[in-house]
Every structure is written in structure tokens, then in C-alpha cells.
# Entry
Amino acid sequence: MKRFTLLLAALALSAGPAAAQDTRAPMRPEFRPFAGVLVPTGAMRDDFKTAETFGAQLALEMSPRFHLVGSLGWTHGHHKFAATNDRTDVYQYDLGFEVNPFGPIGSSWELRPFAGIGGGARTNDYKADYATTTCLAGYGALGTELQRGIVAFRIEGRNYLSCQESPVTGLKKTRNDVRLNFGLALHLH
# Structure
């Protein structure tokens, strides 16, 4: 985790001088709908099943190399606490930033790999006789975007570290899961 944090810091520092060389106008909004899968890892696999997830991101392109990002996701989840009515709606909402240290690969296409980091919260709305819980969550992200004009295809992997409150015991523990997103990005002018 320490190496990943150092890598993101290095990318952030390298993006500053590179962004100053770009001639595109800054502060462009982006809308990014996505669909994907949320995969519990480690001890989280004992509590939840792998599930589909949907959502959207709003991004503000501060420069072609730096984005502020807000995300909202919904997962059609299933927990392992009860034998019946295991349905859980999982809502993930967070803010973060992305750094893209690379430029165009041709005259009309741009391949834009990125790294990101952020934090927010996660709400588990259990449909059984359990109380809804909300805990903090942070993420690291890696992905790429293939852009032509105002439309881009995106793939993003997010590694979440979150607080997970048991609906049975009320104990809070740190848990991990991974979300893989596929989507579009609409670069608005």
C-alpha cells in the first residue's frame, strides 16, 4: 500500500509541469456512466457475494493531466448473514482525483492511462431485519481511457478499503473489495 501511495504522489507531482505545456482549455466537465462488478476480497468474502454495480462519475478536467472526480455507485448486493432475504443495496459515494501523465498517441485518438485516489462512504441497506449501516471508505484506482473527440471508452479498477459494520453484532472492522468498471466518458465543452 505504501508503494502505491508513493506511486500516486509521484504521478501527481509529475503532472503539474506536464500540464503547463498543454494548450487545451482547462476546466472542462465530463460525465462518465459505468457498469461493472464489485468483488469482495479477504474477510469481506465471508460477508458478501460478488455483485453487479452501476453508477456515474462527474469529473472536472482541471488540465488534460489532472481531474477532480465525484462518483456515485449502486450495487445489487447479496449478504451472507441470513439464509433468506439476503438482498442488500450497497451505495458508494466518494470524491477523489486522477492523474494522467501521458499525452496523445496520434492525431485523432488519445490513450490516457490514469491513477487515482479518493475517499467517501459506503451505505449497506439490508432488505432483511437488519439496520442500514454507513461507514467510511477510501480507494486507489488504475485505469485507462481511449478517447476520440468528445467520447471515450473507459476501464477502471478500484481497490476499496472500507469500514464494515456488522448488522448482526454491530462491530466495525476494516474490509477490502475491488470494483471493476467499464463505461464511457463524455467530455463536454
Observations:
- The domain at 2-187 is CATH 2.40.160.20 (Porin).
